[in-house]
């Protein structure tokens, strides 16, 4: 019986020694299991942020401005269509109608009327704020002439000598108020530069001048979506 007793004692001591050796290994095994679980989660999900991508937008804008040409009241109405890149830059087309109370020295009841249009560019600062600062620029061409201001028969008798072609550059500065994702208000000041105006007996040499006003933009200014985690399906 003594040999068997000694054998049992030997087995017990061996088991205790093995348990002592395994104790430092247990935390390592637990950390390994946790790492495997985390790896499995990373396989099942992918994290990303669409805000890092370009956000697209488009809109239709209407503007109304008031200014002066050679001390005479001048009224302007505008229409523009533009694409907005990342809420930081606009590019599109803008058209402007101009009416100025410039009396034709040759004929009574005729004022200066014109229209011009062209490329619209507008860099935008502080685009993620409620109020943005922008610097619109219109570069284009059009025509200006003296036409009847009381809608008489003179309007139907316009010929080439009554209208002169002009080139226009109109830089400005505006405040943009983001009302919603689909609506934006603007208020600003512009200065209009034009090429030389050549109309018979006209004292005007150009239609340069300041103008200030307000506008409304309707469209979608942020067509991007922002998702942070998407579950991967089979085949993706």
From TrEMBL:
Signal peptide bounds: 1-39
Assigned keywords, A-Z: Signal
Name the record gives this protein: Outer membrane beta-barrel protein
Organism ancestry: Bacteria, Pseudomonadati, Bacteroidota, Flavobacteriia, Flavobacteriales
């Amino acid at each position: 019986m003594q040999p068997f007793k000694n054998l049992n004692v030997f087995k017990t001591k061996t088991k205790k020694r093995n348990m002592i050796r395994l104790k430092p290994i247990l935390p390592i095994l637990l950390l390994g299991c946790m790492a495997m679980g985390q790896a499995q989660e990373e396989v099942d999900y992918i994290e990303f942020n669409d805000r890092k991508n370009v956000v697209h937008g488009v809109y239709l804008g209407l503007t109304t401005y008031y200014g002066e040409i050679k001390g005479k009241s001048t009224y302007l109405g505008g229409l523009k269509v533009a694409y907005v890149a990342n809420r930081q830059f606009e590019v599109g087309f803008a058209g402007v109608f101009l009416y100025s109370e410039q009396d034709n020295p040759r004929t009574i009841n005729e004022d200066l009327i014109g229209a011009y249009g062209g490329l619209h560019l507008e860099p935008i600062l502080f685009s993620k704020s409620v109020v943005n600062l922008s610097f619109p620029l219109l570069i284009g061409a059009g025509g200006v002439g003296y036409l009847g201001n009381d809608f008489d028969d003179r309007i139907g008798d316009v010929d080439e000598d009554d209208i002169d072609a002009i080139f226009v550059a109109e830089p400005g500065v505006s405040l943009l108020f983001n009302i919603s994702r689909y609506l934006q208000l603007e208020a600003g000041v512009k200065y209009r530069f034009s090429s030389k105006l050549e109309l018979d007996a006209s004292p005007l040499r150009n239609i340069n001048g300041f103008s200030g006003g307000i506008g409304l933009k309707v469209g979608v200014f942020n067509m991007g979506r922002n998702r942070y985690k998407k579950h991967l399906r089979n085949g993706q």
